[in-house]
Amino acid sequence: MALSCLTSAQAQDRSAYSFKVTPHVNQEDELIDSITVDVLVDGVKTYLDFSTMLFTPQSPDIEHQWIIERDINFDGIPDLMIFYGYIGYGGQGGDIYHGYVWDVKTRKFRLEENFTEIPDPQFDETEKTIRADYRNDYSTYVHLVYKWVDGYLNLFTQSEEELEEPEAGF
Questions:
Q1: Which of 18, 109, 110, 162 has the CB geometry, 3.0–4.6 Å to 40, for a possible disulfide?
Q2: Cβ atoms within 10 A of the Cβ of 143, count?
Q3: CA pair distance 148, 27, nearest whole angstrom
Q4: What are the CA-CA distances from residue 61 to residues 23, 30, 58, 75, 157 (Å)?
């Protein structure tokens, strides 16, 4: 899935873009297994759109925020977080997203590959880092810190915390 195609011959300012998401329900299991994103420029639908399969199919009964427009690279310009699914163990993981950053020079959105590795991203505006803390399996918590270096997101630190086995009995 690439949003780098999200430009026309006349490149627009970032503020001209808006998006409409259409979830697609798989008739076999009645779960949302993919989404299509329509790209609008100044409110007019363009020929630009894209689709993506979800990492984890979602119930149509649960309300989702499919697209979040947020500055993910700390440059002051809204980028895109597109819901991709859920990762983790036993309800203690987090939502994962495709992350697209707005490139001011090319006036295009660029996929940031590493962003999908960050469940429930927590943004630290002061340190200009993105953190994730999640349970990886029944006995391990994972702590990640990402930093932007030369315009690209890099894993800065990763640690794991092993939980002690509970003692048997009451």
A1: 18
A2: 13
A3: 41
A4: 12, 10, 9, 36, 37
DSSP per-residue codes, 19-85: EEEEEEEETTTTEEEEEEEEEEETTEEEEEEEEEEEEEEE-TTS----EEEE-SSSSSS-EEEEEEE
Query: Strands 129-137, 17-26: parallel, antiparallel or unpaired by DSSP?
Result: unpaired
CA distance 162 to 139: 6
Tokens of 149: 């270096």
Q: Considering only CA atoms, which of 93, 142, 160, 148 is closest in space to residue 115?
A: 148
- Model confidence pLDDT, tens digit, residues 10-42: 457 888 888 999 999 998 999 999 999 988 888
Q: Give the C-alpha separation, 80 to 141, whole Å.
A: 27
- What are residue 96's DSSP bridge partners? 85
State the CB neighbour count (10 A cutoff) for residue 39: 21
| Residue in 108, 99, 107, 82 with CA at minimum distance from that of residue 152 | 99
Residues linked to residue 12 through DSSP beta bridges, in sequence order: none
So what's the pLDDT on residue 66? 93
